[in-house]
Amino acid sequence: MPQVSRRTVLASAAAGAAAILPFSSKAAATQIKAAVPTDLKGHEPVPLRWLEGGTPAELAAGTTWGVPWPRGAFGPDQQFTVTTAAGAAVPVQTWPTAWWPDGSLKWTAHAVSGAAGRAETYQLAAGAPAAPETPITVTAGKQITVDTGVIAVTFARSGEHVVTAIRRGETIIAKDGRLVASSQDRPSSEGGATVRTESFTGVVDSVKVEQKGPVRAVVKVEGKHRRGRHAWLPYVLRFYLFAGSDAIRVVHTFFYDGNEQKSFISGLGVQFTVPMRGEPHDRHVRFAGEGNGVLAEAVRGITGLRRDPGAAVRQAQYEGKATPDPATWDQRVTTRLHWIPTWDDYSLRQLNAHGFEIHKRTKPGHTWIRVDGGGRASGLAYVGSPTGGLAFGMRNFWQLHPTELEIGGAATEEATATVWMWSPRAEAMDLRFFHDGLGQDTYPEQLDALEITYEDYEPGFGTPYGVARTTELTFWALGATPTSERFSQLAAANATPPLLASSPQHNHSAGVFGSWAPVDRSAPAKVVIEDKLAQMHAAHLVQTDQQSWYGFWDYGDIMHSYDGTRHTWSYDVGGYAWDNSELSTDLWLWYHYLRTGDAKAYRYAEAMTRHTSEVDTYHLGKWRGLGTRHGVLHWADSAKQVRISNAGYKRFLYYLTADERLGDVMHSLIDSDRTFLVLNPGRKLTTEPFEPDPAKLLVGTTTDWGALAMAWLTEWERNGDPIARTKLINGATTIAAMPNHWVQGGRTYNLADGRFTQTGENSVSVGSLSSVFGLIELMTELIPLIDDETVRKQWVAFCRLYNSPVADQIAETGATWGNLNLRQAYSRATAYASRQLGDETLARRAWQELRTGHAGYPESHSFATRRIEGPLVLNPIDEAGISANASAQYGLAAIQCLALVPDQI
């Protein structure tokens, strides 16, 4: 099978690169400065607010957010300052994350520490930033040490301990930070046979300091889990530390590279050793429950006894403070302390989305007793003493069940604190396919089955090999046992890390992300549309909770289609189950947030992006860079496509948070066109042998190219990659140069330089899915960037003709475009053509197409819900007439019609 490496691509395409966007590396500094226009416009201060509103009591170490800027506002060397509404300067660290083609800043990222003064609102403005009182420092030698001024964290360059020590002053709060995993050779649910288990420890392969202050430092660690010679489950860890903060934020990603028939993960966690100081009655544990609930206990309790040590003693222990000298207690207690059990081990287990339990025991070999339970735990625990301890937690703790927070050895000299991302108390992770193929051994049989269950099955394709999951963790190295009130505040910061955000009005004025505009209720007709958008979005939020779309591999995704007969979503029906980004659900959710600024909308879209970028995409193996079409399992369908791994779905969260993991994912997609060498997307529809020619690949100019181009666009604006720019522009210009541009049949793609070539006579080949995976949104952004009139003209023609009468299509392209579907979705294409051509007739046609609702929601459609209760359903639900496809495309069409042709509504 022919292979083309990126090195080959670089060599062959470099000659075609021109007007290169500046690199973010130091080597490109002179290019950046040379490209920046001399008439920079600047920009007035930008208001910032906390996403959830108000003033958070605690931050998760610190916070990092992104802000867009209009083209030509600032050069790459621009500094920024942050001040509170009262005018107090806040230390801030700034770096660019994207540039406009002229070299001016497009996006900047900013970080402030949890130690900074907090207010409800801030201003971001051009100016010299305030420096932190104690800047963060990074020392690199045989080990790497990051000192925040409050804690010092030392990282090993090799071995089994990722973090060798976390110190607060001279006190070691935690040490020997490590990754732990276990697996078994058969699933837990199939008894009757001996189960063989193995334990693994993460081993460090590489450590890199990605950022080093003055406010924020980032350390990236990569490696695999090992046991002897057996190495698997690659991982990537990023540690975020902020000046003046005693917290560490950790982003943990692992990749599944096992045999799902033999390797069943039974535990996956991050573990620290915590030195214990003081007597057992001065050692404490804390668990966050639901809401602001806190369980506070001592390792050896001295309250509730038959004899009373004294009110001052009891109160001190209850508050987590050092108790008075035992000589001052009631001696009937002091002389009998050795008879009071010490509780060595504790466990909070969230094995499903609806309930957790806390257990404890005196030591291994003895039974666990149930302490208490509740609904949905916040996901934070603590072990330590009045002289310091470790708080450790996991974000989305109950949503990503089965999870666990475990404390071991609290009564000994060294305790262990473990965040279990997959609890060993749960059944082992079973990633096998959900059916035996049902006899679908040939392509004709598989295509026939597709007609009934909408599942595109093929033996061997439903593999989880190469999928990933990212989890966010937080650790606090505390100088004392926290009060219950502060512990609750830490738990809230861990569960929902506070984030600063600029307004929809500012983000829109910057001209980013194409055609959208803030919510506008200035006319009755607009109110109707705005109400529908709000009701539709709210209906999906409700469904997530009522249908319990939670779990380690599922959280963040939504279901594709609803079964009104059973009053449930089609979770078990082939391609009607998990959505997997079908028809750009991700885009709709992000545009909804952009225009509303609503915190719930942001968190909903954030969860989807984190899921789809990891679980629905292959990161290892021969299909690396491809995503999987919708199905009962996220990796079940045999359609592996770039339209699902689409970088366009990930850009929003990246630019709004500067998340490095998402940056890695998007960067990995710039070569996903190489997958057309190893997998033939049309293999079931042809009998021709698959002999791919790198210079003549069968890559589609719409669904395929749109996804590839979005990866190149993002890489170009982020890193100035000349090959990404070359392929992006070559693709757009060569498509536009063909007689029938984006609907030209008979064309091939050159992997080396991204050019398309017409291979036959003029013909038309167009499908309804062609532009509903981000192509419309891509072109709206791309056309102003490359300023090519032929590209603009031909794309406008496509947008105008899709919903045009057949006679118009024949007159311009020589053939009818057929009985096309999704006409409501393409109303936004009509609106774009109207805006570009100044044609009010097209604008009115766009609104008519939206309201008619072909393959979507007509104007008469109501998003009102009706309550369905038992015994008709298992749990009460609010049933709404929605589906993911229709919602995503109606949402995108309505949003863009409102932005492009609002006056003709």
Q: Would you give an account of this structure?
A:
Helix 9 crosses helix 21. The chain is an alpha+beta fold. It contains 21 helices and 36 strands. Mean pLDDT is 95; it is low at 1-32. The protein starts with 5 loop residues before the first helix and ends in a 5-residue tail after the last helix.
Topology:
Elements: H1 6-13, H2 29-35, E1 46-50, E2 62-68, E3 80-84, E4 89-90, E5 93-99, E6 105-113, E7 121-126, E8 137-140, E9 143-147, E10 152-156, E11 163-168, E12 171-184, E13 197-212, E14 216-227, E15 230-242, E16 247-255, E17 264-275, E18 284-288, E19 294-298, H3 311-318, H4 331-334, E20 345-352, E21 355-361, E22 369-374, E23 380-385, E24 388-394, E25 403-408, E26 414-422, H5 443-453, E27 468-478, H6 484-495, E28 500-502, H7 504-509, H8 524-546, E29 562-563, E30 568-569, H9 585-596, H10 599-614, E31 627-628, E32 640-641, H11 642-645, H12 651-657, H13 660-668, H14 703-719, H15 722-737, E33 747-749, E34 756-758, H16 775-786, H17 789-801, H18 806-813, H19 827-837, H20 840-852, E35 866-868, E36 877-879, H21 884-900
Antiparallel strand pairs: 1-7, 1-28, 2-6, 3-4, 3-7, 5-6, 8-9, 9-10, 10-11, 11-12, 12-13, 12-17, 13-14, 14-15, 15-16, 16-27, 17-26, 18-19, 18-23, 20-21, 20-25, 21-22, 23-24, 24-27, 25-26, 29-30, 31-32, 33-34, 35-36
InterPro entries: PcRGLX/YetA-like, PcRGLX/YetA_2nd, PcRGLX/YetA_3rd, PcRGLX_1st, TAT_signal
Domain PcRGLX/YetA-like central beta-sandwich: 141-491
Domain PcRGLX/YetA-like C-terminal alpha/alpha toroid: 497-904
